[in-house]
């Protein structure tokens, strides 16, 4: 008997009986599995599959019995496996056609409900049948797949027939029902969105080669669900977008669209597959935002001017859905320009107020009151910068979610208006000087009005630290950090030498913050200045012990500070001061002590940075002043001048007569060794304080041709009077000297950079040398003219030479 004849015999006899029992069970699983399937029935069906694949009719002489197939041969197993596979396929096709026929009586939500019920039922049935046909999957199907034949396992076979025999027949009507349901949702009706999710999930499963594996193929979902769904969504929102713009303002549109995006994002997460979310959101974005981009961006500037944080946040959240270049980049440029102009306007306002006539009360109030000079200008300048920065930093946080692009735009704008404005001309680095002055005010005693009160319950140190952090915020935008360093170090030197620091903690905090921003090299000298102060305190105690050991008396309190020249921005004066005997004796004693301790060191006396307290008894003083006198805090120069008016013969008052000694201007200059300019400056202080009387027509005005006597009738409500304040001429001189030192340091920095570059490169073109020099110098922006001038100086000093073959190139000379 042939193989085909044996197959026909099996199919027509025992095979039909097995299939008949099997088909009854399959129909039950497809239609009534929710009623349960007991283990006995499951094993019966499983055995049917096994028997069909492994048993065939073998004719035995005189007998009609079945005998087991020869398991050493695959021929009959292959034949019966294929026959069973084809029978199952036909059975599933027939069942799916019946389901498709039944679906014809449904529409709308009823169709979705029917589809989802059948889908769930079919999925459970497919899994069960897949397990029942496990033997077929493991043997015949596996061999076919190993041989390269296109045969799916039973589970996939069933889903393919769902797709081909049912889904493809109803998909148009099914999608129409989905779109109608979504329209009702978007119109505000309450519906069951899980039906949409179930439909979408079925589309995903139908595209899988192997259902239940992670290797999902999205072809069916993308082609038959996502593309039509996106198209319908775009159509719906294009119509709504046009309607919103016609019926309301652009603000109304922004608010409504923001709500729409929130709703759609939440719904999309619910029923769309995760791989399609970006495509859906992009299509929605281009419909609601991309087409209206120009109108939306045009509304940004008015919102910014009005400081509408809520609307700005909504607009930002909408436009960030677009590509950065198309959506937010134009807004960042507008934001940067607006902040820059706001900063310039704020500085111009305080500059105009400071320059207003004294009678203009409003202007005076805006300028922060009367007087103040540079310190008041510095305070108002820094506070104006901070007000603009804080205002738009808050906007950056609350409306732009700390967006890096907007943060960068804010930084660029602040850097522009901080360095160049109505108060700070270009290339003068005045902003650095004013910031250093402001920091000096914060950290110096007697500036309590500058240090604002902080949060309730906060300590003074906490409040000071907050303001120092704000100063550092401005410092980050300063371009001439070397100028700031010079001025700050000078101010710090004064605070330390004159013991005017409001707190050591505040000074250390500021240095720590500067180090964090600019590095150790920026603050190393500042740190050494503190070390010198600590060492000086110990040396003062040692000096007192030295005096006691050598039986030398110290007639008054004497505090000496030894400062290393390399660390301190202070220089010894060119004048030769005639030191009074009482002071000179102490200085000589300390010099002997110091030279014995450090024989290789040399002391240079910094007289302009010394202070003293002197008690003066005026002859006609009354009340407490007559008994205890007046205590004046004076500079060394002032002390030397005042001691000239002291007489040794008076009984307690220090005067031979009520008028006391009379000295001419020339005598004072000769007796002190001070120049005319210094003596005149100090006499102006005494005359304005009415301590001295001038022989001129106005006793309070200095006359270089006149003479001076102590004012016997001097009176003051205060018994302690400070005359050692910095005078305006001194301030101007110090500013000039500091800027000169900055220029010298910059010259050395440029020279060092050029030599370093040329030493490494040996030969370099003119343009390339300038570019590399600018890139290497960080503390300031080197000017091309300065670099060219420095190159010429280095050529003169034989560090460089022009190339003989190319006059626009240089060679390094070892």
Topology:
Blueprint: H1 3-12, H2 14-32, H3 39-54, E1 55-56, E2 67-68, H4 75-103, H5 108-132, H6 134-146, H7 154-186, H8 194-206, H9 219-247, H10 250-271, H11 277-288, H12 293-298, H13 300-306, H14 309-319, H15 324-327, H16 329-354, H17 361-366, H18 373-398, H19 404-419, H20 430-443, H21 460-475, H22 481-497, H23 504-518, H24 520-549, H25 581-597, E3 611-616, H26 624-628, E4 630-635, H27 636-643, E5 662-664, H28 665-672, H29 676-688, E6 692-694, E7 707-710, E8 720-722, H30 728-761, E9 763-765, H31 766-776, H32 784-796, E10 800-802, E11 809-812
Parallel strand pairs: 4-8
Antiparallel strand pairs: 1-2, 3-4, 5-7, 6-7, 9-11, 10-11
Helix pairs in contact: 1-2, 2-3, 2-4, 2-5, 3-4, 4-7, 5-7, 5-8, 7-9, 8-9, 9-11, 10-11, 10-14, 13-16, 16-18, 16-19, 18-19, 18-20, 20-21, 20-22, 21-23, 22-24, 22-30, 23-24, 30-31, 30-32
Description of the molecule:
The protein has a three-stranded mixed sheet. A three-stranded antiparallel sheet has the order 5-7-6. The chain has a three-stranded antiparallel sheet with strand order 9-11-10. By secondary structure, the protein is mainly alpha-helical. Helix content is 64%, strand content 5%.
């Amino acid at each position: 008997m042939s193989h085909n004849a044996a197959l026909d015999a099996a199919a027509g006899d025992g095979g039909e009986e097995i299939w008949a029992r099997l088909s009854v069970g399959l129909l039950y699983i497809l239609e009534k599995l929710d009623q349960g399937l007991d283990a006995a029935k499951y094993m019966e069906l499983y055995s049917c599959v096994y028997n069909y694949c492994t048993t065939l009719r073998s004719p035995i002489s005189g007998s009609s019995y079945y005998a087991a197939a020869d398991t050493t041969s695959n021929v009959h197993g292959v034949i019966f496996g294929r026959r069973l596979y084809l029978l199952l396929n036909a059975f599933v096709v027939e069942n799916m056609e019946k389901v498709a026929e039944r679906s014809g009586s449904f529409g709308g939500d009823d169709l979705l409900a029917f589809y989802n019920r059948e889908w769930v039922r079919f999925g459970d049935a497919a899994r069960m049948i897949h397990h029942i046909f496990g033997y077929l999957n493991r043997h015949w199907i596996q061999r076919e797949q190993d041989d390269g034949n296109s045969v799916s396992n039973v589970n996939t076979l069933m889903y393919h027939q769902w797709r081909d025999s049912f889904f493809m027949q109803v998909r148009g009507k099914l999608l129409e029902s989905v779109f109608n349901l979504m329209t009702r949702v978007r119109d505000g009706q309450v519906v069951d969105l899980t039906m949409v999710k179930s439909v979408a999930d079925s589309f995903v499963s139908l595209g899988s080669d192997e259902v239940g594996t992670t290797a999902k193929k999205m072809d069916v979902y993308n082609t038959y669900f996502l593309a039509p769904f996106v198209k319908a969504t775009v159509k719906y929102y294009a119509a709504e977008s046009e309607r919103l713009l016609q019926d309301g303002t652009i603000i109304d549109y922004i608010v409504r669209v923001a709500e729409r995006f929130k709703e759609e994002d939440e719904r999309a997460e619910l029923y769309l597959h995760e791989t399609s979310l970006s495509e859906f959101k992009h299509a929605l974005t281009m419909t609601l935002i991309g087409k209206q981009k120009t109108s939306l961006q045009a509304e940004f500037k008015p919102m910014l001017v009005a400081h509408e944080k809520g609307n700005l946040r909504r607009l930002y959240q909408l436009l960030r859905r677009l590509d950065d270049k198309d959506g937010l980049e134009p807004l960042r440029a507008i934001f940067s320009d607006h902040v820059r102009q706001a900063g310039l306007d704020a500085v111009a306002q305080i500059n105009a107020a400071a320059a207003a006539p004294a009678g203009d009360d409003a202007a005076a109030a805006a300028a922060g009151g009367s007087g103040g000079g540079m310190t008041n200008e510095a305070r108002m300048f820094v506070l104006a910068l901070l007000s603009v920065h804080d205002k738009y930093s808050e906007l950056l946080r609350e409306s732009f979610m700390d967006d890096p692009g907007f943060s960068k735009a804010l930084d660029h704008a602040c850097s522009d208006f901080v360095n160049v404005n109505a108060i700070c001309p270009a290339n003068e680095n005045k902003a650095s000087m004013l910031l250093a002055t402001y920091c000096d005010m914060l950290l110096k005693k007697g500036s309590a009005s500058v240090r604002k009160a902080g949060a309730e319950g906060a300590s003074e140190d906490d409040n000071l630290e907050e303001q120092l952090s704000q100063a550092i915020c401005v410092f980050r935008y300063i371009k001439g950090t070397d100028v700031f360093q010079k001025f700050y170090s000078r101010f710090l030197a004064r605070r330390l030498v004159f013991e005017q620091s409001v707190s050591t903690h505040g000074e250390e905090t500021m240095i720590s913050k500067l180090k964090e921003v600019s590095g150790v090299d920026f603050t190393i000298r500042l740190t050494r200045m503190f070390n010198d102060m600590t060492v000086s305190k110990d040396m003062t105690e040692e000096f007192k012990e030295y005096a006691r050991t050598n039986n030398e008396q110290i007639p008054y309190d004497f505090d000496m500070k030894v400062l290393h020249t390399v660390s301190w921005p202070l220089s010894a004066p060119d004048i030769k001061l005639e030191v009074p005997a009482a002071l000179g004796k102490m200085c000589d004693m300390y010099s002997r002590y110091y030279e014995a301790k450090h024989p290789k060191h040399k002391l240079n006396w910094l007289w302009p940075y010394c202070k003293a307290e002197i008690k003066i008894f005026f002859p006609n003083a009354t009340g407490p002043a007559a008994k205890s006198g007046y205590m004046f805090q004076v500079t060394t120069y002032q002390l030397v001048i005042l001691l000239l008016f002291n007489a040794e013969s008076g009984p307690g008052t220090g005067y031979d007569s009520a008028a006391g000694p009379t000295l001419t201007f020339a005598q004072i200059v000769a007796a002190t060794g001070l120049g005319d300019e210094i003596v005149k400056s100090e006499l102006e202080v005494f005359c304005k304080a009415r301590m001295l009387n001038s022989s001129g027509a106005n006793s309070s005005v200095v006359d270089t041709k006149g003479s001076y006597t102590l004012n016997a009738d001097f009176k003051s409500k205060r018994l302690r009077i400070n005359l050692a304040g910095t005078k305006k001429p001194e301030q101007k001189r110090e500013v000039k000297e500091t800027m000169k030192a900055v220029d010298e340091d910059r010259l050395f920095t440029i020279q060092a950079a050029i030599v370093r570059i040329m030493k490494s490169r040996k030969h370099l073109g003119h343009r390339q040398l300038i570019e590399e020099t600018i890139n290497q110098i960080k503390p300031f922006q080197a000017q091309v003219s300065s670099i060219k001038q420095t190159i010429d100086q280095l050529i003169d000093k034989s560090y460089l030479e022009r190339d003989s073959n190319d006059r626009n190139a240089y060679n390094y000379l070892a």
